[in-house]
Amino acid sequence: MAAAFHTIARLLLEAPTAELVDELRKPRTLLEWPLPTSIVTQRGLELLERSSLLEEPHHAVVRDYHELFVGPGKALAPPYESVHRSTEGLLFEDETVQVRAFYARAGLEVPRLGRDPDDHIGLECSFVAALAISALQADEAGETVARADAVDTLTDFLEAHLLAWGPDLMVLIGERAETSFYQGVSALGFGALEHVAERVCGRALHG
User: Can you identify the CATH homologous superfamily of domain 2-199?
Assistant: First the structure.
């Protein structure tokens, strides 16, 4: 879970390097995706393979990233929770503050606090990865209280935030992406959210 969410976070937080694009499209990497292969996850892996077969150039992937998440102009798939969930659809709304409080609950904060909205989809995915690692480390150390705290924080965060808007964003990315690469990333992202909804929250994810 941590490995999958860490990878997705990297692909959503900034435009991927040519090395990262090439690495993700290698057959070995596709075979080693760390989460169980659901229908949507398999679709994501097939799209990354298609990106490789089409030899989609790195500059096309980078352009797709910027058009989806940055601009110029209005981003096709704004990556901030507050834009999608707040009444005004603006940055740094109540959702941003609430997400920051969850980070603080786990003793974490965003790298550029106050400058980058805490509710970026990539940061929220990074938080899931961090909590999964914390739970694993506590479990290996036999620290049952710490493990329970990490799992409780993860469950609460998923229900209050990431699962409330992340799946819809992943669908939007898939619909508006020009490259097979980012269509694949959106499917893998949806599959990862599908996995944690079932594994952590005990419910199915529909979308």
Answer: TorD-like (1.10.3480.10)
